[in-house]
């Protein structure tokens, strides 16, 4: 006897729940997806596995409603997952996205950018960035640097005195327009980046206190060293008078004063300090938005000249910026190894993995923000400001990409070592 058919159209008899699960975000891909760490934007939101209950609604008057409803729910879930992944990607890569967006906006519609440049908005945005940096600046980290002070001194010498010497070699290259070469030469005279170096150092487990100390001190001392290098390297080559005094005071009022003011406000308002520490990402994104205003204004102003450029010259400048950063990485790696061999070998401060990684990352990066402040103050003495800044924006993005790949390699190497050790 055949069993009786089950009536699936009875309201009391519904198909059971079936879970729709979505995979976790892969934590092994570029350290939680951090291709660009940017301004402390190295942590991302994980797309976690979650069950999505879906019930088939039985209706005798709708023939294939169960399948269509399931497809609709699956489609909606896929859209939701894609939106979360897109949001994750935007947060992780906020720095390059903001910089590229500024360049594209300035090139496509230069009217507002030219108006902002006319009223010197870049100076106010620079002050805002360093004021936010002062608000985020803690005092306890510097006490942790006492043990690694020889490494810190080496880092400052490499950043402020050795790497600017590469600018003389860069100026020997002939490109069209020559402002691309000049911009990269100025870029090599700058101190280290304000936060991406520290963020990458934290991500890879390096000595973040040492990285932060070198970042803050090098940017403060740059007020003295940058005018010196600009006047000595570029004055002879261009036959122009570099306004060293004006440049010095401009850096004082746009960099140092806002930084100190932000630190004072932080110390006076303890509640504000706690709020800032708990919302680092928000303030980092604010700094990034202010930073992106600069390429927007510079590109808007120089759009007619940019339209006259040949793509070949821009690609060559991009490759040259990559070569400069790889050269700095190679030089600092060899120099740190030599210092390690000369000061105790395996027991040296320089041989410690966390110090080596902090030195290699921080000493090889250059700050885009101070380039902008310097170029603005030069007022066209060494070339068109937009053409000077454009290769520096590209070089800044490239150095973050390269160092993110290096950080991911180190993380993969550490993971492999831990697995072998446990085995």
TrEMBL record:
<feature type="transmembrane region" description="Helical">
    <location>
        <begin position="149"/>
        <end position="171"/>
    </location>
</feature>
<keyword id="KW-0813">Transport</keyword>
<keyword id="KW-0150">Chloroplast</keyword>
<feature type="transmembrane region" description="Helical">
    <location>
        <begin position="387"/>
        <end position="411"/>
    </location>
</feature>
<comment type="function">
    <text>May function as sodium-coupled metabolite transporter across the chloroplast envelope.</text>
</comment>
<feature type="transmembrane region" description="Helical">
    <location>
        <begin position="314"/>
        <end position="335"/>
    </location>
</feature>
<keyword id="KW-0809">Transit peptide</keyword>
<dbReference type="GO" id="GO:0016020">
    <property type="term" value="C:membrane"/>
</dbReference>
<feature type="transmembrane region" description="Helical">
    <location>
        <begin position="210"/>
        <end position="230"/>
    </location>
</feature>
<dbReference type="GO" id="GO:0009941">
    <property type="term" value="C:chloroplast envelope"/>
</dbReference>
<keyword id="KW-1133">Transmembrane helix</keyword>
<feature type="transmembrane region" description="Helical">
    <location>
        <begin position="356"/>
        <end position="375"/>
    </location>
</feature>
<comment type="similarity">
    <text>Belongs to the bile acid:sodium symporter (BASS) (TC 2.A.28) family.</text>
</comment>
<dbReference type="InterPro" id="IPR016833">
    <property type="entry name" value="Put_Na-Bile_cotransptr"/>
</dbReference>
<keyword id="KW-0472">Membrane</keyword>
<protein>
    <recommendedName>
        <fullName>Probable sodium/metabolite cotransporter BASS4, chloroplastic</fullName>
    </recommendedName>
</protein>
<feature type="transmembrane region" description="Helical">
    <location>
        <begin position="85"/>
        <end position="107"/>
    </location>
</feature>
<dbReference type="Pfam" id="PF13593">
    <property type="entry name" value="SBF_like"/>
</dbReference>
<feature type="transmembrane region" description="Helical">
    <location>
        <begin position="242"/>
        <end position="261"/>
    </location>
</feature>
<feature type="transmembrane region" description="Helical">
    <location>
        <begin position="282"/>
        <end position="299"/>
    </location>
</feature>
<keyword id="KW-0934">Plastid</keyword>
<keyword id="KW-0812">Transmembrane</keyword>
